[in-house]
């Protein structure tokens, strides 16, 4: 079973549901065990986590690389779990985010299983897409001592190295108005209309116009709005959830202060997740660049990722981490796809990286190679 066939099989599981997650995790576990790999299973709040360690076992402190992926997807229609192929595109829910990468990672783990010099740890989690951001399995696993020298999370990057990811500021705000009879709206102050105006104000606050070397701008999304309690009444209260992905150069507290300064807006609660940043000159990052160079044409470049990811769990624990995944588009959309040929290149890049790593680390120094070049203008 190659990475394409494996990815097709993974797509068939509706892993936006608990039953689908359990069935898919069972398949992943069985696939790895059938390759004579020793698999560990772990439950986090009733959700299945699959882990396996391969490679160097006798060395006291071998270079240790973590390959991290997630099985879960956002909800979709039933037909989106029926994979189809159009040319080089494998289409289906999760193809790009990130069952294609997960399939290639599983194959790469088998490819490097007998490497005597590098330890590779594979962890497959079930809740990267979860709304419950306060209880993520990878946070618990890493917090419990799961460690390594470098981590790669297989989020989609089009075979570039994601050295930065935006931070998350999720804000629930209340907007206050004045109630009146629905037949005389001019006597009231409609909180739903005011909430829409308040969101437009948020979109034009000073932080929204800032940029950095890898990002054109932050992103601001009106994710949910709730207001009104009767058909014949002018609503006097409305709440909305705003999803802000801020730049690594920005401060979440400053953004909150700007939002609080908007008239008639009350911040009810918020959640923040720090931006992910790793140096482009980190020796493992540069070794990965060389591994990629053997599998693709052109130069491996560093990019900034608009979405947040579990990479921050590793960074918070002092483990340098990047996002690195195959080519595709449309994640979370109706026509999500991943390039089949890029899955093979992705698999080779991971195996080449592991095979080359010991020699590369041995010669690492000022003359070890050029730094990564950033994609001009970012990817926002």
Q: What order do the strands of the largest sheet run in, or round the barrel if closed?
A: 1-2-6-3-7-17
Shape: globular
Number of domains: 2
Order of helices and strands: HHEEEEEHEHEEEEHEEEHEEHEHEEEHE
Structural class: alpha/beta
Low-confidence stretches: 374-380
Strand content: 25-35%
Classified by CATH, the class of the largest domain is Alpha Beta
Classify the fold: give the CATH topology of the largest domain.
Aminopeptidase
Level-2 CATH architecture of the largest domain: 3-Layer(aba) Sandwich
Query: How far is the first residue's CA from the last residue's CA?
Result: 36 Å
Number of strands: 20
Q: For the report, how would you describe the main beta sheet?
A: 6 strands, mixed
Radius of gyration (Å): 23 Å
Summarize model confidence as the mean pLDDT. Answer: 90
Q: How many individual helices?
A: 9
